[in-house]
Every structure is written in C-alpha cells, then in structure tokens.
Amino acid sequence: GAQVGQGFKLQQPQDKVSVAVGETLTLNCTTSGLADPGPVKWLKGLGSGNKTIYDQRWEDPSPHVTRAVAGSDTDFTIHIRNFQPDDVGTYYCMKFVKQPTGKDEVFQRGSGTEVSVPETALVPGMVAASVVLCFLLLLLGLVVALCMYRRKRQGGAGSPCPARTVAVGSFLSVPLRCCADTPGTPSEVLDAEISHLPGQQSSKEENNIHYADLQPLPPAPWHGRSPGTAPTEYASLRVAAK
Description:
Pfam families: V-set. Residues 199-242 are annotated as: Disordered. Keywords: Disulfide bond, Glycoprotein, Immunoglobulin domain, Membrane, Signal, Transmembrane, Transmembrane helix. This is SHPS1 phosphatase. It comes from Mohoua ochrocephala. The protein is α+β, with helices and mostly antiparallel strands. The protein has a domain at 16-116: Immunoglobulins (Immunoglobulin-like). It is 21% helix and 24% strand. The strands form four sheets. Strands 2, 5, 6, 9, 10 and 11 form a six-stranded mixed β-sheet that branches. Strands 3-8-7 form a three-stranded antiparallel β-sheet, with no helix packed on it. Strands 1-4 form a two-stranded antiparallel ribbon. The longest helix is centred in the middle third of the chain and has 32 residues, at 126-157. The radius of gyration is 49 Å and the shape is rod-shaped.
C-alpha cells in the first residue's frame, strides 16, 4: 500500500485563470500512478468554507459542471459553464482515500487555480447603470433650470400699474396702486394706504371716501330746476372701516 501511494501523482498546472461572465471555464487536472481506493474531487476553497464542485462518485453530474473526458481514470479536467461572478475563487483538485471508518481523507491535492473575472465584466450592469444615472441627473438639471427660468419671467412680467389718487376729505389725496400678483382687494390696499397717513384718526365716518369721477354728460332737461343752477354729477365709493 505504501508503494502504491508513493507512485501516485496529481498535477494541476493552472495557477491563475481569467474568464468572462457567461463563458465556460476549463480547469485542468490529471493523475498518474496508483493510489488506494477513493474519489477525485474538485473543491472551491479550503477549510470549513469549502464547496464541492465535482465528485468522481456522482452518477449524475451537475449540468453546470461537466467532465472534459467522461469516465477517464486519469484525466479529471472539468468545464464550468455559464461562469458567474459568484463562481470567482480558488479551485483545488484533490485525491481522497477511504479510511476504515468510511470517511474520505485527503491524500493529495493540487496547488490550486485562482479564477478571476476581468474588471470590465465583473459587474456587467455597471456601465448601463452609470448611463441611466447620468441621464437622470441631466434631466433633473433641465427641470430645475426650466423652473428658475419660468419664475424669473413671471417675476419680471409683474410690473406695477401707474398710481391713481383718491381724494380723502378736502385736502389729502391717497395714491392707489395695483400690482400684479398682489394679494388683497382694492379696499384692502386702500385701507393699508390710509392706515399709514400721519395724523389720521381711524373711525367709520373718516373712512368714508368719496371718489369723484366727473364725466361729460348730455344736458339734462331743465324742467323742475331753478334758473342758473348748473348740473353736477359724481360717483360715491364707500369703503367699510376695518
């Protein structure tokens, strides 16, 4: 048994391999000489976190992993189809021998093959995601610029109207101004103007404002009037006191 074990050799020639996502990875492993009974396996990683990728005793291998030479006792090269980023790692080809207890024990293993994915293919959706993000940022910038432009135009369009004066009492005149986008009714604006006049006392009678709007009218009939009396017409505007 010792002589059989000493003549056994396992060769795993690949140190590092790079494969694109979706392509087929080929891992080479060959054996020579004789060894005690036991399977040849492919493991990903070592220690407690290892994962068995291929076991010679499997009657129905995984469709993801296939043998390059089916049924061979010396060539244990495997193909891993549709390689994914999760498959990145170090793979080991190992020869196991069965112990009297029935447990498989590692007899010999290869040096390991480190498998990686090119950086451009590691995250295939990264480029597409970057393009979408740039497009969204550009769209957001256009929306903000459009809102600022519209606000600027609306602010410039609201120029104040010419001021109008309204007679208050016998000596004072109050300017009435109307501005675009100015809240409140004309009476509220007028009240605000009056409230700021110096020396004015607030009362209902004093807030009665007479706005004379004299217009040329056709001559009225003279019947019922005293001779020498001139016609006078005016309009009265009463503003409620606050």
